[in-house]
Amino acid sequence: MSEIIAEHTVLSDADQRWLKLLVSEWQLLADLSFSDLVLWVADRDENVFWAVAQIRPNTGPTALVDDVVGDLIAYSPEHLVAGAFNTGQITQTSAAKLQAGMPVNTHAVPVKLAERVIAVVEQQTSQLGVQAPSSLESAYSDTGALLARMVTVGAFPMPADSSSLAFSPRVGDGFIRVDSHGDVQYASPNAVSAYRRLGLIGDLVDEHLPSLTATLAPTGPGPVDDSVLSVLGGRIARRTEVVSGDAHLTVRVLPLLDGRERVGSIVLCRDVSDLRSKERQLVTKDATIREIHHRVKNNLQTVAALLRMQARRMESPEAKVALNDAMSRVASIAIVHETLSQAFDESVEFDRVADGLLRMVGDVSATSGSVSAVRRGTFGVVSADMATGLSMVVTELCQNAVEHGLADATGEVLVVPSRHDGRLRVEINDDGRGLPSGFDWRQSRSLGLSIVNTLIEEMEGNFSIGARPDTRGTRAVFEIPV
Ligand SMILES: Nc1ncnc2c1ncn2[C@@H]1O[C@H](COP(=O)(O)OP(=O)(O)OP(=O)(O)O)[C@@H](O)[C@H]1O
Ligand SMILES: [Mg+2]
Hints:
alpha+beta; 7-stranded antiparallel β-sheet; 5-stranded antiparallel β-sheet; 13 helices; 40% helix; elongated; binds adenosine-5'-triphosphate; binds magnesium ion
C-alpha cells in the first residue's frame, strides 16, 4: 500500500495515516455490510485509480474471488469509483450485476479527510439470499450503511480508538445496536449469550445497556472515566473489560453519527472468560514452578553450608577435602536452580549458569593461588532437565583442571562451548602440568570422572580427555545432543 501510494499518488502523510487507520478498522464495515471492500486511490493522472487494499467479509460469502490489490484501472468519469471520487457522494449500481455467477451490488464510498476526498472504498455486496433478510441481517446492514456514510464525512475510522486491535471483538463475536439514549435496539444471539454469562436473565432488547451492565458487573474502585457506565454511554470510541465473578467480557463501543447527529452506538462484545481463566492458570503454574526452584536452591545452599561446617571440624585432611568436594558439588546444583527460579520457561540461558560456576571454581582455587576460569563462546539455551547434569559435568572438569592441572597455582582454565547441528560441544582446557603419564581415564576409579562419564552417557553424548594438541596442558571435550 505504501509503495503504490508513494509511487503513483500525491497523497500527504496525513492522508496516508488516515488510510492506514481505515484499513486497520474496516473489517467492521465489511462484516456489517456483508461486503468485499477495495480501497482505490487516484493516480496523478485523472480518472486512473489503483487498488491498494482489499478485505473480505467474515459474515458472508465473498463477491470478489480474485485479489485485486495492485490493479490499475482507468475509469470513465461516469464510472462508480470515479464518480464517487469526483462528486464526494456515495454512488451505486442501479441493479445487481452478475459476477462469477453471483448477483452483486456495488457501492462506491468516498473517503473524506478534512473536506477532501482522498480515496474511494468500493463495496461489493453479494445479493444471494437477500430476498428475506433475517432481523440479524437487517440490523447488520442498516448499521453498515450508517458506517459507510460516516466514512464519507470523515467520522469513521475513529483515531482515538485504534489500540490493540488484535484483541478487539468482531461483529460475529457479539453485536449490539444501541440508540442515543443507551437503550438496546438489537442484540445478536452471541451477544445475548455473552451477557447470559455475566448473569443476564431475560432479553437485552429495550434494556438500558449502561445501567444493566453496571448492575450485572458492579465496578471496583477503578478510575472513574473507565467505569462501565461512561464507556457504554457510547459518546466516544472506547474499549473495556466487564468482569463479574469468573465472567469476563471485552467490550468495544463505537459511537454512530448520522451527519453531525449522534444516533446511538455499536457495542461489540466477546466472552473471554475461558481465555482469562487459562491465563490465570498459566500465571500461577509458572509462579509455582519458580517458587519451587527457589526453595530447592535455598535447601541446597543449606546443605552446602552444613557440609562446609563439618569440613572445618574435621581433623583428617583427607576427610576435609572430601567434604569440601561434596560441598561444591551441591553448590553447583544450587546455581542451576537459582537460574531456573528466575527464568520464565522450562529452558535455561546456560551462559548465566556457566558463569556462576566458573566464578565458584575461581573462588575455590583462590585459596591456593591465582587461577582464572574464562568462557569463550556461548552455550545457548538448554532444557531445564539437562541443565543440572551439564552444570555438574562442567564443574567437575573445571575443578580437575584447577586441582590437578594447575596445582602449581597459576594459569587459566578456558571453557569453549559451541553449537552445530543440534549438538553442544564443550572443551575445557587448562595450561597446567598435564595428565599423569600412562593415565587412562576409563580405568580410573575416582569419583569425579565417573560422575562426568555417567552424566554424559545419560545425556547420550560422548566424552574424552587427553593432552592438549597445541600447547601444554589438558583438554577435556564432551559433546551432547541438545
Ligand atoms: N586437568 C587435569 N590435569 C591433570 N590431571 C588431571 C586433570 N583432570 C584429571 N586429572 C587426573 O585424573 C584423575 C581423576 O580425576 P577425577 O576427577 O576422577 O578424580 P579426583 O579429582 O582425583 O577426585 P574427585 O573425586 O574429588 O574429583 C585425577 O586424580 C588426576 O590425576
Ligand atoms: Mg576431580
